[in-house]
Design brief:
The chain is mainly α. The chain is built from 13 helices and no strands. It is globular.
């Protein structure tokens, strides 16, 4: 039975990768009037005039996965929850409109909060505390923060797609049922996308892609990481550590950039070329090596989170918690200091007023 399931899932994954490869190839080669990456983000080294069709294929894959799960569920007498599909549609639509019209951050914030509210209304929320208000507040903060974090990380060829692929693989090992099918679908589409998104990229995912990935990662991380413990006693710190390890690169990059933009008197939402990725390139690494280094760091963090969740039933000893916290702080410290040095060198700090 296990072998049959593995073969079935492998075929399912391969078919989606194949369909995505064909889809990307047709869209790029047939000369369709494709939307282009907007020119005013100020975050990429490369040209901004490349098609942003990654998110479109991601969304199509999610829809196809839900159709597959619905057909499968009808045969098994159990249907998937469509809460995530609704939020994916909202996130994709909001991102696509923003790609075309370039609205203010407030426009995106409204949709992000709406996604969080829909999650909560359908009983998908963080349960790390016995205080329901804290749980709901954390859920909104996490959904909004992660959607913005994944969007901000999309500043260099291959980085967001590869980091997201690694995290989805980790989530797939923790998931079950229809969720696994959906995670496999988005992971397969990311693998196909990387063929054209690896440096030098021939296409981007756009905000429609990064917002879609953000809401997917938020939903599955709440279900399988934040809520990985069977018991809630006060504030469950282990789940926070697991989240920090599984999303180590996006969280460190977002926090570092936000703090240093604030110190420079700039809005955290206004893009620049001083992300963790950029700073590593300024220090001498090539773009592919920078992406591979950050991929390795996030893969190590994901492995640690998955290992302790599966072997410890979502719990950590005090020693394990201290070690993992120390590792996160070390990586954060290195990234922050590097970013700080580069920004000071370019007179981008302490410019208030």
């Amino acid at each position: 039975m296990l072998i049959t399931e593995i073969v079935s899932q492998t075929i399912y994954f391969a078919v989606i990768v194949g369909l995505c490869v064909v889809g990307y190839h047709i869209l790029l080669k047939r000369g369709f009037n494709l939307p282009q990456k907007k020119n005013n983000t100020g975050e990429r080294f490369a040209s901004q005039t490349k098609p942003i069709i990654g998110g479109t294929i991601f969304f199509i894959c999610i829809v196809l996965a839900y159709i597959y799960c619905t057909v499968k569920g009808l045969n098994e007498g159990e249907l998937p929850s469509y809460t995530l599909l609704i939020c994916c549609t909202l996130a994709f639509t909001m991102g696509y409109i923003d790609d075309v019209k370039n609205f203010s951050p407030l426009f995106k914030l409204v949709f992000q909060i709406l996604c969080a509210i829909i999650f909560i209304a359908n009983d998908t929320h963080i349960r790390t505390s016995d205080n329901i208000f804290l749980n709901y507040s954390l859920t909104v903060f996490w959904v909004v923060g992660l959607m913005n974090s994944i969007n901000m990380l999309d500043n260099m060829d291959g980085i967001t797609a590869s980091i997201s692929t690694i995290i989805f693989i980790g989530l797939a090992t923790l998931s079950s049922g229809f969720d696994t099918e959906i995670i496999f679908a988005i992971t397969a589409s990311l693998v196909a996308f990387l063929i054209w998104n690896w440096h030098p990229a021939k296409m981007y995912m756009g905000d429609n892609g990064s917002q879609l990935l953000g809401v997917l990662l938020a939903y599955f991380s709440i279900t399988y990481v934040w809520n990985s413990s069977d018991t809630i006693l006060g504030f469950n710190y282990a789940q926070l550590i697991f989240i920090c390890m599984m999303f180590i690169v996006p969280l460190i990059d977002t926090t570092t950039v936000a703090i240093n933009r604030f110190l420079g008197g700039r809005s955290p939402f206004v893009g620049d070329r001083y992300h963790t990725t950029h700073c590593l390139v300024y220090k001498g690494l090539s773009i592919p090596k920078t992406v591979l280094l950050l991929d390795f760091i996030n893969a190590a963090g994901c492995f640690a989170a998955v290992y302790f969740i599966t072997t410890g039933n979502g719990k950590l000893s005090h020693t394990e918690a201290i070690i993992l916290t120390a590792l996160f702080c070390i990586v954060f410290g290195i990234a922050y200091v590097t970013n700080l040095i580069i920004r000071k060198k370019n007179n981008l700090l302490y410019k208030h007023g």
